[in-house]
Amino acid sequence: MTKGLLLVHGAWHNGAGFDALVAELAKHDIAATTVELTSVGHEDAPLGDLYSDAALVREVVATLGDDVAVLGHSYGGVVITEALAGVDNVSHLIYLTAFMLDEGESLYAACGSVDPEWWVRSPDDQRLSTATPDDVFYNTCEPSVAAQAVDALRWQSVASFMNPVTQVAWREVPSTYIVCELDQAIPVFAQEAMSQRAGTVVRMSSDHSPFLCQPAALADVIAAALR
């Protein structure tokens, strides 16, 4: 099958983290595109929020043809939920160990309105970095892969985690949730609770980043979901 797929990265990450997955998806005749969210950036860069991220995703989706699937990883799940309600060319949503929130909910509230111990706030309280990303995001990755991924991490805007969802795409668009059973960032019980909102649930024995530790297996799961 030939199908367009937009991959929306999570907090602190960037589109290049999906490179291995993009190559594996091509073997399934799935043309994957990535995006660089506005809420993520280097230390001195101005950062956007959930709503500027959502606007960007809508703009990109509009360029991808008449039949597009969109995958959101982690925080990217909040973005695709906000961005894609009422967007006619989106046929499927995939939540990859992602925050699948409802109207009025924010990522921060979904975390219990308390900073996880591995979040590190900047002195001005406007940005977040991570204290132990190798353990939280990449705990089953090869050490060299994890080290490269850690080096690529950037700052995340606090505002993006505080903004509540105002429109809910998964109420309109068929969806799949991929639970990652070895995830140290989003507990499995939280994934399972959110996944009840999805039409289909699939499980992987993976850490928070299967696009790095199991890209071929993840591509197989995505291809099956889109069929």
Structural class: alpha/beta
Our Rg estimate from Cα atoms comes to 16 Å
Number of domains: 1
Q: How would a crystallographer describe the biggest sheet?
A: 6 strands, parallel
- Give me the number of helical elements: 10
What's the overall geometry?
A: globular
> What would the average pLDDT be, to the nearest integer?
96
Q: Quick one: CATH superfamily?
A: Alpha/Beta hydrolase fold, catalytic domain
Spatial arrangement of strands, main beta sheet:
2-1-4-5-9-10
Q: Layout of SSEs?
A:
Layout: E1 3-8, H1 19-26, E2 30-34, E3 40-41, H2 50-61, E4 68-73, H3 76-83, E5 90-96, H4 107-110, E6 119-121, E7 127-130, H5 133-137, H6 143-152, E8 155-157, H7 158-162, E9 175-180, H8 188-195, E10 200-204, H9 210-213, H10 215-226
Parallel strand pairs: 1-2, 1-4, 4-5, 5-9, 9-10
Antiparallel strand pairs: 3-8, 6-7, 7-8
Helix pairs in contact: 1-10, 2-3
Written account of the structure:
- It contains 10 helices and 10 strands.
- By secondary structure, the chain is of the alpha/beta class.
- It has a single domain (3-226), classed as Alpha/Beta hydrolase fold, catalytic domain (Rossmann fold), CATH 3.40.50.
- A 6-stranded parallel β-sheet has the order 2-1-4-5-9-10, sandwiched between helices.
- Helix 8 links the parallel strand 9 and strand 10 (200-204).
- The longest helix has 12 residues, at 50-61.
- The radius of gyration is 16 Å and the shape is globular.
- The N and C termini lie close together (8 Å).
- 47% of the residues are buried.
